[in-house]
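Entry 14. Ran structure prediction on the chain below.
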Amino acid sequence: MSTYIIGEIGQNHNGSVDIAKLIVDLVSRPVREEVFDIALRPMDAVKMTKRDLSEELTDSQMNRPYNSPHSFGRTYGEHRAFLELTDEEHFEVYKHAKSLGLDFVETLCSKGCLSLLKLFTPDRLKVASRDLTNLPLLEAMAETKIPLILSTGMAGCRELDDALEVITRHHDDIAILHCVSQYPTAPDNLNLRTITFLKKHYGQYTIGFSDHTIGIAAPVAAVGMGAEIIEKHITIDRRMKGTDQQGSLGPDGVNRMIRDIRIAERWLGREELCIDPAVSAARVKLERSIATRRDLHPGDVITEADLHLLSPGDGFKWAERDRVTGRRAKNFIPRNEIVYPKDIE
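Output, structure tokens:
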């Protein structure tokens, strides 16, 4: 199992292609597990978001004053315009990601944003939670036949089913991500068991998790519950200006999340009960074997009353005691020592 991990740049580039590229560099770094010196697979993809501001908000909302310390403009519209990269700039970041072996995912927020497909073809397209009910947009995105990722942060089954009905007219290469559109998401609201619900009722699609919690524990838990895609906001510096920076992972957090997800994949192993070869040494050292309660001399007939269990575990087990009781000692076996096959007739 290999989880598809997406680093969401979102608007954390702060309107700068150079910052976007630095974030791409961040997620392409090699990751190692240091104790066992294991090289781990890095992130699989980065994600950008494209908006068409003419189809974003009402005029009154775009023109309202925006006095937040995170504002990049006098009005909300000016703020959004500052953060918006052109199609050509998205293409530049796309090429940089591909040069580093990463997939590139685009969230498209309106039909007008499909214009960037004239320049390049993302590996996947993402439908933001807010647009799951935007059926005309879903139709236009599905017509491209590019694999689609849906976030369910504002949806119930009815909204999801309506979206799937539209998309599957064109293709069924679809991933569904459990998501809660609360930033950050409170612990009592996360409800990770939605992942198992989606796998049970929508198992024909790839099921994953788009995370807005603080920290890295939730994505690792989600992988343990069967999530096949993880999406998490990332940045080069959580102290930078911007509404999403503090809720994102910085360089160290990115490294730790990737490490823990990749290690969790190894933890999951196989669905079976077996004795792993890695525990053989511990088994010999720590398990118990049949041992003597008293000195046994050559010719003594061994009874169950003569026996108990001690470590190490390289002798007979209690379930094998019928191979010992009723037999005669061949050699002298001191009290509180293991009975080995060489010691009995």
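Residues 277-343 form a domain with the Type Iii Antifreeze Protein Isoform Hplc 12 fold (CATH 3.90.1210.10). Will compare against last week's run tomorrow.
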